[in-house]
Design goal:
heterodimer, A: about 400 residues, alpha/beta, Rossmann fold, 6-stranded mixed β-sheet, 5-stranded mixed β-sheet, 14 helices, B: about 300 residues, Pyruvate-ferredoxin Oxidoreductase, domain 3, Alpha-Beta Plaits, 2 domains, 9 helices, 10 strands, about 30% helix
Chain lengths: ~400, ~300
C-alpha cells in the first residue's frame, strides 16, 4: 500500500486491520473514538472481517475483551483517560487470566479538573497490572507496535495482554506519513493465533479465572505473571529482530538519540520526545554533549538496557509527563530504582513537564541542561521541578481573574 | 520549513483545509505534519488547524505559534481577542483573508503590516458549489501560497474529499472551485526570517490555597458577553408586508433571538443571531429572506 498520511488513531486502526483481529468490543471517548469509528466503518463496508460490539461502559468493554480473548480469538480494544480508569478493575482481572489481547490507550490528563490534552497519569495508573506497555513517539510506531504487540502477547513464554500508548492530539489527531505494508508480509510476521491454554471448545470444558484462597496459591499466580513479564524482554528482542527483517524498521526497548558520547541525558517517553530531540540537537550546536534516552517499553521495565545506556553519563534528567501527587515523577522513581546499585551512576534530576499537553519550550529544555550542569558542579540535586513559564503564569492569572479568584 | 496556521469557525472546514494542504504537500514529495486543535468545540466556535511542510525531518509537534502563513477563513476572527489569528506571524509572512475587501482595505482595517492576500471564498463557494463550503477553497489558496503544485492539489482534493463527499457532482464542483481559487491567487516570493521569538522566562510556581487553586469559578456567568452575531453567513430579514405575525419564527428560534416589536412584528437580535435560518425555513408565509452578511462592511463584524 505504501505511505499514507494517517493520524495516530488512523495508524492504530490500520494496525488492527492488518493484524486481522477477530473481535473488537468498543466504547467511545475523546481522543480515542476515531480508532473505533474507523474500524466500525471498515467492518460495515466489508473491508474488514471482524465482530464489533458497542458496550455499555469501559468496565464491560475490558471484560468482554478479556473474555473473548479467553475463547482464543484475536481481540482488540481501545480507550483513554477516564475510560481506562472506569475499566481499571477489569484491567487487573483480565491480565490475571493470561489472555493475549491488545489494547490502545490514547493518553489524556485525568480529572479533576477535567481536560483533553495528554499526559501519562492514565497509562501509568495501570503500571502494576500485568499488561505490558509500549509507548509510541510517532504514528508509524503506533502501527508497528500493534503488530509487534500481538506477536509478543501471543508468545507462549509471555501470554500477557499488551497496551500500546500514544498521546492524545499530539499523535492521535496528528497526521504523518505512515508506511502500511501488504497483508501477506504482515501474515508472515504475525500468523494466525493458535491458542494453547485459553480457548473455547465444547469437547474440552474448563473454568478460567477461578478464585484461590490462601496466600501461597495467590503468590504463585502473581509471581508467574511477573516472570512472564520479565520473559517478555527477551521475546521482545526476538520480535524486534523479526520485525526489522520483514519491514526494515528497527526498534529496541529504549531509543538512544545522540546518546553514545553524551554527557547530559534527557529521559522522556511518547510524542514529546520529538521536542526533546530537537532540544538535544540545539544543545549540541551550542557545544554541549547532550543526548536523549526514550523509554519505549515501560513494562517490563528494561533495566539492563537502561543501565547499559547510561553507564558513565554525568547527569540524567527525567522529564515526567505525569505527577504522583505528594512524590513527584513516576518514571523518575523507576529510573532511580534502576540505577541505585550501579557503581558509576549519574546524578539523577527530576522534572515534571507537559501535563495536560502543556508545551515544553526551548527555554525550559535549556533550564534542564543548566540544572544538570549545576548539579554536577555542586553535587546537589534539587527537588522535582515543574516546568512552567512566566507567560503561562500570566495566562493562569488571567483565568483566575475571570473565575473571580483575583 | 513552512508553518501554516488556519483560523476558521467550527463547521467552515479549517480542519479539512489543513488536511488537503497536508496531503497535497505530501504528494508533492515533502515531509508533512498536519494537526487540528479541537475537542469541546462546536459549530461556530473559533477553530485552528496547522500544517508543517518541510524538506527535512520535522522535529516539532503541537500548535504552531510562529507561522509563516496564516489563512483566515472567517474574517470576523481578526477582531476576536481570543482567537488572535495574527499572533506570532513571522516577519515577511503572508496573511490570507477570506473577504470581499481588497488587500489594502484589509490591511488598513485590521492594521496588518505583512503581505495580505484576499479573495471572497464565501462568494466563490456560493456561486460555484451552491453552498458556503470553504475547506477545499482555503486549501487551494494555501497550496498556492505555499508553492504546492496544481496536480498535487488536484490529487489531494480527490483523496481527501472522496471520503467525506459521496456525491460525485459536488466533489467535482469543489475541485473546480478550488482550482479557480488556486489560479486567482498571485503567488508571492515569500522570505520569512527565522522567528525571533522572545525567550520564555522559566519560573517556579508558588503555593496558593484551595480558595484560589481549586478549579471552581466564583464569578457570575459571562456567556452573555460573547456575542455570536458574527458567526452568520446569512442574515434573516423580515418582509412585514408578507408577515402574518403568526409567531412561528419566535417559537422555532433555537437561540431565543427573535423578539416582537410594538406592532406585533418579529425582529431578530442581530448581535446574537447565528444565522441558522431555521426561522426562514419554518415561516409559513415565506416572509423571511436570507441576505448574505458582509461582516467587513458592518459594525457587527467587530463585536
Amino acid at each position: 500500500m505504501g505511505k499514507e498520511m494517517l493520524t495516530g488513531n488512523g495508524a492504530a486502526a490500520w494496525g488492527v486491520r492488518m493484524a486481522e483481529v477477530d473481535y473488537i468490543p468498543a466504547y467511545p471517548i475523546t481522543p480515542q473514538t476515531e480508532i473505533i469509528e474507523t474500524i466500525a466503518k471498515w467492518i460495515s463496508d466489508g473491508a474488514m472481517d471482524a465482530s464489533f460490539v458497542t458496550m455499555d461502559s469501559e468496565h464491560s468493554m475490558v471484560t468482554a475483551a478479556g473474555a473473548a480473548s479467553a475463547t482464543g480469538v484475536r481481540t482488540f480494544t481501545a480507550t483513554s483517560s477516564q475510560g481506562l480508569l472506569y475499566g481499571f478493575e477489569m484491567i487487573y482481572t483480565v491480565a490475571g487470566w493470561r489472555v493475549p489481547l491488545v489494547m490502545v490507550n490514547v493518553s489524556r490528563g485525568l480529572s479533576s479538573p477535567i481536560t483533553l490534552g495528554p499526559d501519562h497519569n492514565d497509562i501509568l495508573a495501570i503500571r502494576d497490572s500485568g499488561f505490558l506497555q509500549i509507548h509510541c513517539e510517532t504514528c508509524q510506531e503506533v502501527f508497528d507496535s500493534i503488530l509487534m504487540a500481538y506477536k509478543l502477547a501471543e508468545d507462549e513464554r509471555v501470554l500477557l495482554p499488551v497496551i500500546v500508548n500514544m498521546d492524545g492530539f499530539y499523535l492521535s489527531f496528528t497526521r504523518e506519513p505512515v508506511e502500511i505494508p501488504d497483508v501477506e508480509t504482515v501474515r508472515s510476521f504475525l500468523p494466525e493465533y493458535q491458542p494453547e491454554h485459553a480457548f473455547f471448545k465444547p469437547a474440552q470444558p474448563m473454568a478460567q479465572g477461578v478464585a484461590v484462597l490462601g496466600g501461597e496459591f495467590y503468590s504463585y499466580f502473581k509471581y508467574q505473571m511477573h516472570l512472564a513479564s520479565k520473559n517478555a524482554l527477551e521475546v521482545y528482542k526476538e520480535v524486534c529482530g523479526d520485525f526489522e527483517q520483514k519491514f526494515g524498521r528497527k526498534y529496541r526497548t529504549i531509543e538512544e538519540y545522540m546518546l553514545e558520547d553524551a554527557e547530559y541525558v534527557l529521559v522522556m517517553t511518547n510524542s514529546f520526545s520529538t521536542l526533546g530531540k530537537a532540544a538535544v540537537k540545539r544543545a549540541r550546536e551550542n557545544g554541549l554533549k547532550a543526548g536523549l534516552l526514550r523509554l519505549r517499553v515501560l513494562r517490563p521495565f528494561p533495566d539492563p538496557d537502561i543501565k547499559n545506556a547510561l553507564k558513565g553519563k554525568r547527569a540524567v534528567a527525567v522529564i515526567d509527563q505525569n505527577i504522583s501527587i505528594g512524590k513527584g515523577g513516576i518514571i523518575y522513581s523507576e529510573m532511580a530504582g534502576c540505577l541505585y546499585n550501579e557503581i558509576n551512576r549519574p546524578l539523577l534530576l527530576s522534572f515534571i513537564g507537559g501535563l495536560g499537553g502543556k508545551n515544553i519550550s526551548p527555554e525550559e529544555f535549556e533550564l534542564i541542561f543548566d540544572k544538570m550542569i549545576k548539579a554536577e558542579d555542586t553535587g546537589i540535586v534539587e527537588a522535582p521541578h515543574l516546568l512552567y513559564t512566566e507567560n503561562e503564569w500570566k495566562e493562569m492569572a488571567g483565568l483566575k481573574e475571570i473565575a473571580g479568584k483575583g | 520549513m513552512l508553518r501554516l496556521r488556519f483560523h476558521g469557525r467550527g463547521g467552515q472546514g479549517a480542519k479539512v483545509a489543513s488536511r488537503v494542504l497536508g496531503t497535497a504537500a505530501f504528494l508533492d514529495g515533502y515531509n508533512v505534519q498536519d494537526f487540528p486543535l479541537y475537542g469541546a468545540e462546536k459549530r461556530g466556535a473559533p477553530i485552528t488547524a496547522f500544517t508543517r511542510i518541510s524538506r527535512e525531518n520535522i522535529m516539532e509537534r503541537g500548535v504552531i505559534s510562529d507561522p509563516d502563513i496564516v489563512i483566515v477563513i472567517d474574517e470576523t476572527l481578526l477582531s476576536d481577542p481570543k482567537a488572535m489569528p495574527l499572533s506570532g506571524l513571522k516577519k515577511g509572512g503572508v496573511v490570507f483573508v477570506n473577504t470581499p475587501q481588497s488587500p489594502l482595505e484589509s490591511k488598513e482595517r485590521y492594521s496588518i503590516t505583512d503581505h495580505v492576500i484576499t479573495l471572497d471564498l464565501t462568494k466563490i463557494g456560493l456561486d460555484m458549489i451552491g453552498k458556503p463550503v470553504l475547506s477545499s477553497l482555503a486549501a487551494a489558496v494555501a497550496s498556492r501560497i505555499a508553492g504546492i503544485g496544481e496536480d498535487a492539489l488536484r490529487d489531494a482534493l480527490e483523496k481527501e474529499l472522496s471520503g467525506i463527499i459521496s456525491d460525485r457532482g459536488i466533489l467535482e464542483k469543489n475541485t473546480e472551485a478550488a482550482l479557480y481559487c488556486y489560479d486567482a491567487v498571485v503567488p508571492v516570493q515569500m522570505k520569512t526570517t527565522e522567528s525571533i521569538r522572545e525567550g520564555e522566562n522559566v519560573i517556579n510556581i508558588p503555593f496558593e490555597t484551595a480558595r484560589v487553586s481549586s478549579p471552581a469559578i466564583n464569578a457570575t456567568g459571562n456567556t452573555p458577553l460573547r456575542r455570536t452575531g458574527n458567526w452568520r453567513v446569512f442574515r434573516p430579514v423580515w418582509d412585514y408586508d408578507l408577515c402574518t405575525r403568526c409567531m412561528t419564527c419566535v417559537a422555532r428560534c433555537p437561540e431565543g433571538c427573535i423578539q416582537v416589536n410594538e406592532d406585533g412584528y418579529p425582529y431578530a437580535d442581530y448581535e446574537n443571531c447565528k444565522g441558522c435560518l431555521i426561522c426562514a425555513r419554518e415561516c409559513p408565509a415565506k416572509a423571511i429572506n436570507d441576505v448574505r452578511e458582509m461582516h467587513s462592511q458592518s459594525e457587527e463584524g467587530e463585536l
